[in-house]
Specification:
268 residues, 2 domains, 5 strands, 8% strand, Rossmann fold, alpha/beta
Length: 268
């Protein structure tokens, strides 16, 4: 009897069918679109499954439901934070007080435009991975809760060998940070899209290749990769004359909103 109850519970979760009505009334019909034969077949299949396996399947389903609920709660909290910022009731400095950034001129813009705390930004015009290596001890001394790294554009090349070298070098640095800062949430920001009508150099045609390689690198290392492309989708008015750098309005109204939403900063 206990086994039968567990099986029925599993089917109720899987198909969202009000099974009580099935037993109370023989005239009950499943909602339109529900395959009753498939449900009966699954019931017969589960009847032959060991009890422990049925329990395991139910537990997995319940865990998925809990994770979905937690995700929804984080999204709601994230939207609340964004609404407060947009309503002028919360500053980016306060909302992103746990965030530290290292990178090139695109990250330096956050300091230049006085959007984020300068003490949280380690960025320099034309910065490459050499900049990160040079400043690593200073960055690690801050013990940042969240560290976002934005490098690549100034090292981009049409050479596959150069791409391989970039990933190898970046991987080595990231492993060192993981070792030195085990409690820090490390995020690798992918290269920003550029306006190809203005940024016409052939190297910029390799941005996707570099970003895909960084995604694979992050997956291997168990590090988050942050893709800014959705914030740029369909927008070119925020670009400067070089088709690379962006305006203060873009950071405030698009990029940082996208960052908070995707990374769910402050939602946990």
């Amino acid at each position: 009897m206990k086994r039968f109850f567990i099986v029925i519970t599993a089917l109720a979760v899987l198909f969202l069918i009000p099974l009580t009505g099935f037993f109370v009334s023989r005239s009950y019909r499943a909602p339109k679109g529900v395959d009753e034969d498939a449900g009966r077949a699954l019931l017969q299949t589960l009847d032959d499954v060991p009890l422990d396996e049925v329990k395991e399947k139910v537990a997995v389903i319940e865990q998925q439901k809990l994770e979905a609920l937690a995700r929804a709660q984080r999204q709601l909290k994230t939207q609340e934070i964004i609404s407060l910022i947009q309503g002028g009731q919360l500053s980016y400095r306060k909302a992103l007080s746990d965030l530290y950034i290292a990178g090139d001129s695109l990250m330096a813009g956050l300091e230049v435009y006085d959007i984020l705390n300068a003490n949280h930004i380690f960025a320099e015009v034309s910065a490459s991975l050499a900049h990160l290596e040079t400043n690593l001890s200073r960055i690690e001394a801050k013990r940042p809760p969240i560290l976002l790294l934005h490098y690549g554009l100034n090292m981009i090349s049409t050479s596959d060998a150069q791409l391989t070298n970039f990933i190898s070098r970046y991987t080595s640095i990231l492993k060192q940070i993981q070792k030195d800062l085990p409690k820090t949430r490390i995020v690798v920001s992918l290269i920003f899209p550029v306006d190809r009508t203005k940024a016409t150099s052939s190297e910029f045609g390799r941005i996707d290749a570099y970003n895909n390689a960084m995604k694979e690198m992050c997956e291997t290392l168990g590090i988050e990769a942050f893709d800014s492309a959705p914030a740029f989708a369909g927008r070119t008015s925020f670009y400067g004359a070089d088709g690379i750098h962006v305006s203060a309005a873009f950071y405030r109204n698009e990029w940082l909103v996208h960052l908070i939403r995707e990374l769910e900063i402050g939602a946990s």
